[in-house]
């Protein structure tokens, strides 16, 4: 698989004005402005192979959108090297926009006052799409995204979910090899989210479109991506498989046990005392040191047990811990970066 995106040592620093409060502050801001530097993206390196669908994850202000803007040629980085499909995005912007599709969740690229269909039709001459290709793409995307019910409605009257579907269609009509999606499901209801996920998955699988998707919605990633990159405060904290993320970060599992009888003491040597409620107890254990099978065996030796359930921590919890603890891993595919 050829390399589609290569980012090395990417850094983007913004100079922002420091706003001092109050009347005195307002005067100072005007006559003696003070600036400070915000490192939106800091020493970020990664690469994407053609055909990958990668989730770029991080809390608000992590630097996700800034990265996408650099990759789409909208921003020039402060330092670092970027090659996308063999070119430097911001240097050949005109030519480059024909090779990529981009959707930014918070703004539409469609004409606000035009019916969706007119807006989409305008893209044919704009991108010089062969008419037959244009027709068949439009028919396919419109069917998959279910655009028909609102295709004659002006963009400004669409719901957010409808607008997002129209925008994603618009981003793909010229058959780009690469699709950048910045928070495509933000603010959408569950049904609209699912619609968009299915479509993104379809273009990735059926058309081999390489997709880089930013989101702070973990269910997007769980549903779509095998590989995730996690960014916080401009730094890449993790790059690896979703499965590896769970394994690498979350070593503590829990075992919920329903005892068949009342026991006064259900402590096990070498383990923290379980949380108890009636005949139920929850043991926390580090699965790298003690397998769940071994733990169950030890319990069965001592107690009559009615039911057992091993619980792995949900991904949400894992990622929250990464954010909190800034852990770095050297996992199987996940790498300290
Ligand atoms: N044009 C800009 N001018 C100044 N600061 C900016 C600008 N764009 C982004 N930032 C700052 O850079 C950081 C990263 O922002 P952004 O890339 O939008 O994060 P995310 O998309 O992950 O929420 C934030 O602290 C944000 O305030
Ligand atoms: Mg953003």
Describe the structure.
By secondary structure, the protein is an alpha/beta fold. Among the domains are: 3-99 and 176-246, Rossmann fold (3-Layer(aba) Sandwich), CATH 3.40.50; 251-312. The chain is built from eleven helices and 13 strands. The chain has helices at residues 22-31, 64-71, 93-96, 116-127, 131-145, 160-172, 190-207, 218-224, 242-249, 292-302, 315-325; strands at 3-18, 34-49, 53-57, 79-84, 100-104, 178-182, 210-215, 227-232, 235-241, 252-259, 275-277, 280-286, 305-311. The strands form three sheets. Strands 5-6-7-3-8-9 form a six-stranded mixed beta sheet, with helices on both faces. A four-stranded antiparallel beta sheet has the order 11-12-10-13, covered by helices on one side. A three-stranded antiparallel beta sheet has the order 2-1-4. Helix 7 links the parallel strand 6 and strand 7. The longest helix has 18 residues, at 190-207. It is globular and about 75 Å long. The two termini are 23 Å apart. The model is unreliable at 327-337 (pLDDT under 50). It binds adenosine-5'-diphosphate and magnesium ion. Residues 14, 16, 38, 40, 58, 60-66 line the site of adenosine-5'-diphosphate (ADP).
